[in-house]
Amino acid sequence: RTRSIVRGVGSYLPRRKLTNQDLEKLVETSHDWIVQRTGIEERHIAEDDETTSVLGIKAAEAALADAGLTADDIDLVICATSTPDYTFPSTATMIQTGLGMTHGAAFDLQAVCTGFVYAVSTADKFLQSGSHKRALVIGAETFSRILDWNDRTTCVLFGDGAGALVLEAQEGEGTSADRGVLTSHLRSDGRYRDKLYVDGGPGSTKTTGVLKMEGREVFKFAVGMVADVVQDAFKATGTSADELKWFVPHQANKRIITASADKLGIAPEKVVITVNKHGNTSAASIPLALDAARKDGRIQDGDLVMIEAIGGGFTWGSALIRW
Ligand code: ACO
């Protein structure tokens, strides 16, 4: 059977850093409160010229370089984002152009913070079907542009960034068939819309709007939903927490990550945490964490890696990848 193998990973963070100390000057908050409740120490904020597509292009270029490939080798571009440059055209087609591609297909996918898991799962199904050969799977976001910078309950949590994977269809038995995306599990339940949403859009205020969140409510649901989809992935593949080499969750909040790992019986040393460095970057957070753990030598070829996320909708999902 065909598997979607990871060929490369890359990421990009905007130039400007915003520390918790900087935030103390903007809203009534403190470094200690933010670190204790979220684990976040700093985040990066895009300048005007650093749009979501610009961040996505840089992450995609890094992933292609890591794979030793060029844009000519890619025939599918999927960009997970909730903060596109424009309502349309898609950010993915802008990234495609930025990479110098005029061939293949490109589209955006919107599942908020679960966007990257949805995009990996979608790309995997395209590649397995035989319709496409190599996919750039990108998570790129500029949540700083949809934050209410006077609302301390949300503005301290998020940051901007992008990350990308190159997935390649490989066929046949043997070692390559045991690698790649082994399984993925996607869920959603729209009844929870008002727990986490943006209060604007073409069908409502006709403005972009700002992010609204009932943080404590989201927290309450998050750990259980994460555990469910991760268990689904273990069941589907006959694996368990013991066999997992790395747990790479959506980087929203250190307490959610730690509580989820604990509930699943995943040892703390297997958990990859980068939220301290970039805050919650929504769909970009998993590839940012994957890139960090690959580049610092933690993720090695053959390692079993679980990714998972929960986000607005609610949406949630997992994917188990043999690197
Ligand atoms: N600085 C200082 N104090 C603050 C801040 C702040 N930035 N924000 C809120 N507070 C205050 C509140 O006003 C409240 O004060 P009060 O007790 O006088 O009313 C107090 O701190 C406690 O507020 P809670 O909201 O109860 O704090 P909690 O411990 O729940 O932490 C947090 C808040 C960090 C948002 C937490 O609920 C959380 O992490 N939720 C999950 C949110 C999340 O991760 N969402 C993203 C997932 S999906 C996605 O990625 C899009």
UniProtKB/TrEMBL annotation:
**General function of this protein:** Catalyzes the condensation reaction of fatty acid synthesis by the addition to an acyl acceptor of two carbons from malonyl-ACP. Catalyzes the first condensation reaction which initiates fatty acid synthesis and may therefore play a role in governing the total rate of fatty acid production. Possesses both acetoacetyl-ACP synthase and acetyl transacylase activities. Its substrate specificity determines the biosynthesis of branched-chain and/or straight-chain of fatty acids.
Listed under subunit, the entry gives:
Homodimer.
**Organism field:** Microvirga aerilata
Region called ACP-binding, residue ranges = 251-255
In this chain the Beta-ketoacyl-[acyl-carrier-protein] synthase III N-terminal domain maps to 107-190
Highest taxon of the source?
Answer: Bacteria
Reactions listed under catalytic activity:
malonyl-[ACP] + acetyl-CoA + H(+) = 3-oxobutanoyl-[ACP] + CO2 + CoA
Q: In which pathway does it act?
A: Lipid metabolism; fatty acid biosynthesis
Q: Which GO terms describe its biological process?
A: fatty acid biosynthetic process; secondary metabolite biosynthetic process
Q: Beta-ketoacyl-[acyl-carrier-protein] synthase III C-terminal domain: which residues?
A: 235-323
Family, according to the entry, reads as follows: Belongs to the thiolase-like superfamily. FabH family.
Q: What is its EC number?
A: 2.3.1.180
Q: What is this protein called?
A: Beta-ketoacyl-[acyl-carrier-protein] synthase III
One cellular-component annotation, GO = cytoplasm
Keywords in UniProt for this one? Acyltransferase, Cytoplasm, Fatty acid biosynthesis, Fatty acid metabolism, Lipid biosynthesis, Lipid metabolism, Multifunctional enzyme, Transferase
Q: Which GO terms describe its molecular function?
A: 3-oxoacyl-[acyl-carrier-protein] synthase activity; beta-ketoacyl-acyl-carrier-protein synthase III activity
**Cytoplasm: is it a keyword of this entry?**
yes
InterPro entries recorded: ACP_syn_III_C, ACP_syn_III_N, FabH, Thiolase-like
Location in the cell reads:
Cytoplasm
Q: What is known of its domains?
A: The last Arg residue of the ACP-binding site is essential for the weak association between ACP/AcpP and FabH.
Main location group? cytoplasm
Query: Where, by residue number, is the active site?
Result: 113, 250, 280
